[in-house]
Amino acid sequence: MTKLSTNAQLVSTVFDEVAKGNGAPFWEACHDDIVWRTIGKGSWSGEFVGKQTIIDEIFRPLNRVLVERATIPTRLIDGGDVVVLQATGRNLTRDGQRYDNDYAFVIHFRDGKIARYEEYCDTDLIARVLPDRTAAKSMSKPT
User: Fold this and answer.
1) Distance CA 12, CA 10 (A)
2) What total number of domains does the chain contain?
3) CATH number for the domain including 124?
4) Which structural domain, as residue segments, surrounds residue 66?
5) In sequence order, what DSSP letters do the residues of 52-94 get, joined into one string?
6) I need a labelling partner for 54 at 20 to 30 A (CA). Which of 37, 46, 65, 78 fits?
7) Is residue 15 part of a domain?
8) Is residue 142, in this structure, part of any structural domain at all?
9) Model confidence over 57-108: pLDDT tens digits?
10) 96 DSSP 8-state letter
């Protein structure tokens, strides 16, 4: 078995924690000026720059929409400074809909930290199941 690069080992470790619901290691592994890009043209798509912007524009709204959330890694492709992770989402919305998307994350490293994160997924599923991102931002947090 081939030894994983330091970056691939970090992605593996971080996503083992993400699968358990612990997102803190992910943010610790990111540069403050990380660029997050989600493919597509919908309200959840686009390019977001900086940890706080990504948290405010993507993760807080998602946390308002989803009552169960997990991302399970299924395959890791080690490209050194670019690591690809395939994963399956196991998610449930507040209104009881399944949001189980399949993902390919292309993760770019700079100086041992994540500098760019590209998310490829079923954007039609996003449009069918999730509310508009702007509307999600104003929802009250589930209890």
Assistant:
1) 5
2) 1
3) 3.10.450.50
4) 6-137
5) HHHIIIIIHHHHHHEEE--EEEEEEEEETTEEEEEEEE--EET
6) 78
7) yes
8) no
9) 999 999 999 999 889 999 999 999 999 999 999 999 999 999 999 999 999 9
10) S
